[in-house]
Amino acid sequence: MKILHTAAEFFPYIKVGGLSDMLASLSKYQSKNNEVHIALPLLESIRPELKFLKTEIPCIADELRYNTDACKVLEKSKFRKVKHGKINLYFFDSPLFSRYDKIYGNTDELYSFAIFSYACYYLGIHLDVDVVHSHDWHTSLVSVINNTRYPGKPTVFTIHNLAFQGDHPFWMTSFLRTDPFHIPLESIANYEKVNYMKGALQYTQEITTVSRGYRDEILHEPQGLFLSWILNQRIDSFTGIMNGVDEKEWNPKSDKKIYKNYTLKTVEKGKRENKEALYKEFGLPVDPERPLIGMVSRLTHQKGFETFLNAFLARWNLPFFYFILGTGDKELEGRFFHESHFSNHRLFFYKGFDETLARKIEAASDFFLMPSLFEPCGLNQMYSQVYGTVPIVSRVGGLKDSVREDPDLNFSTGLVFEPGQDHSLAFALDRASTLYYNKDGLHKVRSNIMNLDWSWKNSEMEYHRIYEKAISKKLI
Ligand code: ADP
Ligand code: GLC
Questions:
Q1: Residue-wise over 342-369: b if at least 16 C-beta within 10 A, else e?
Q2: For residue 243, which ligand has an atom nearest its CA?
Q3: Are residues 427 and 470 in the same domain?
Q4: Maximal CA-CA distance, the chain
Q5: Ligand 1 centroid distance, CA of 297 (Å)
Q6: What is the domain range of residue 271?
Q7: 252 lies in a domain?
Q8: Which of 22, 246, 400 to mutate to test the pocket of ligand 2 (most atoms within 8 A of CB)?
Q9: 223 and 102 within one domain
Q10: Separation of 199 CA from ligand 2 center, angstroms?
Q11: What is the CATH number of the domain that holds 317?
Q12: Residue 198 and residue 335 in one domain
């Protein structure tokens, strides 16, 4: 099958969160048996890393070139091809994105992503793909254009995070009424606002999201964030498919970024060595006998750190040491810095985005904490399991689908608590402490989690089935 993905992130070139890893690992798996193409925006910061091939593809048909500002900017833009393993990447080289030093949060992103989406539509036609698979609101208009313009390709749209919908007042998007778009704005509006994501949910042949648990949650308010009504309308075309993990990329046996490699057989020693090396690198005078809880995350409301901070204070007496890597919300950064300075070596906070450090933390930690208030899938709980790090997660979305706590440790793959409930997390920390000092029990849980299969094998097959469904619907 000939597949075109369209997205704003792709590992290793553009990474803000899990979408980047998800697309890189899914497409790698798909490229074994399919022809895979991916359209991405080109930021100046990544240009030096890219080895462009000669192929350059226009972003708009000749006859439309001069009609509007949007047409003119598309005329000035082009796709430039880069080979990534068996995958073909097409970077959207455009004056719109070359002004940006980061991918999200730019003032005119509604305009830039709409233009990029048109270019993606055109690329799909040019490459004559079988299906176009778009991810999140940034390229959701690709699904709209393919189903409101002629010719159009079958589309699949994946929700990675419903919290970002690309919604805004009508006046900001009047350009969408004219060339080259001609989008009926009323049909993509939701509650008096133009809403890019609603557009995709309305028009695409198939909708997916990144876990079954999250799918079921967002069919209801308040988790549906005012889009549950349309998800219910389209329920027969709406599937939850759990993300997978690239087992070559995330593997404690071969990961070159961690201090010491290890396997299930050597996990105790391996973790101990990684822990000591981590403390040494950061000059932390912490007893390695104490259990270490790692956290790596965007610092946003979604991730539930308020709950953590309250439980942390409530369980001051527990022996844990916390190592936190993250950046984002300034107030949360401030609170972590405060605890880091004044907690007398109970917590260490490193502000930043650091892929290597993230892996070192995974390898060194005994537990990995994800207190999310909502979590469409979450990747770190699965990475943790692969690294023999026991996840402690809130019972939401993909976290509840991938972590099971059972009184019989033979069946436990982590610890689970109720989202947003300080006391529930505090009790989970009590249980984690007990587990840490039960050496046989801890080894049992580690062996359960290191033996889990998070490969893309099953999920890739599900995507394939959805693509076939989308293709057959478009033919009707
Ligand atoms: P989300 O996409 O909502 O951020 P996920 O759990 O799906 O959540 O994926 C987050 C990814 O981003 C993980 O690979 C995680 O390690 C990585 N990540 C998040 N924050 C940082 C950071 N500060 N430094 C390094 N990696 C980070
Ligand atoms: C989003 C979600 C996260 C998910 C990721 C990849 O960023 O917040 O839960 O794992 O997308 O699908």
A1: ebeebbbbbeeeeeebbbbbbbbbbbbb
A2: 2
A3: no
A4: 72
A5: 5
A6: 267-450
A7: no
A8: 22
A9: yes
A10: 20
A11: 3.40.50.2000
A12: no
**Do 308 and 408 fall within a single domain?**
yes
Residue 258 is assigned to a structural domain of this protein: no
- Counting from 1 in the atom list of ligand 2, the atom nearest the Cα of 210 is 12
Task: Say how many Å lie between the CA of residue 59 and the centre of ligand 2.
Answer: 29
Residue 375 Cα: closest atom of ligand 1: 3
Q: Ligand 1 centroid vs 415 CA: distance in angstroms?
A: 20
Residues 79 and 119: beta-carbon distance below 8 Å: yes
Host H or E run for residue 349: strand 347-351
Tell me, yes or no, whether 23 and 165 share the same domain: yes
Ligand 2 centroid – CA 420 distance (Å): 19
C-alpha to C-alpha distance for 252 and 267, rounded to whole angstroms: 9
Mutate to test the pocket of ligand 2, among 379, 380, 403 (most ligand atoms within 8 A of CB): 379
What separation in Å is there between the alpha carbon of 182 and the centre of ligand 1? Answer: 37
Is pTM beyond 0.90? Reply is yes
Chain segment 305-347, per-residue pLDDT in tens: 999 999 999 999 999 999 999 999 999 999 999 999 998 889 9
What residues line ligand 2, using a CB cutoff of 6 Å?
A: 17-19, 22, 160-161, 210, 243, 375-379, 398
* 416 plus 470 within the same structural domain: no
Is residue 290 located within the same domain as residue 335? Answer: yes
- Asked if the structure places residue 249 within a domain, the reply is no
Residue type, position 189, single letter: A
Integer CA distances (angstroms), 361 to 140, 250, 297, 323, in order: 35, 13, 12, 7
Q: Output the ligand 1 site: residues, CB below 6 A.
A: 17-19, 21, 296-298, 325-327, 353-355, 358, 377-380
Distance (Å) from CA 9 to ligand 1 centroid:
12
The series of mean pLDDT values per 10 residues for the chain, 476 residues long, is 98 96 98 98 96 97 88 97 98 97 95 98 98 98 96 97 96 94 95 97 98 98 98 98 96 98 98 98 96 97 97 96 97 96 92 97 98 98 98 98 97 98 98 98 98 97 98 90
User: Total structural domains in the chain?
Assistant: 2
**How high is the pLDDT of residue 345?**
85
- Sign, CA dihedral 314-374-403-366, equals negative
Sign of the alpha-carbon torsion through 387, 388, 393, 397 = positive
Q: Is residue 36 part of a domain?
A: yes
Task: Say if residue 338 is in the same domain as residue 470.
Answer: no
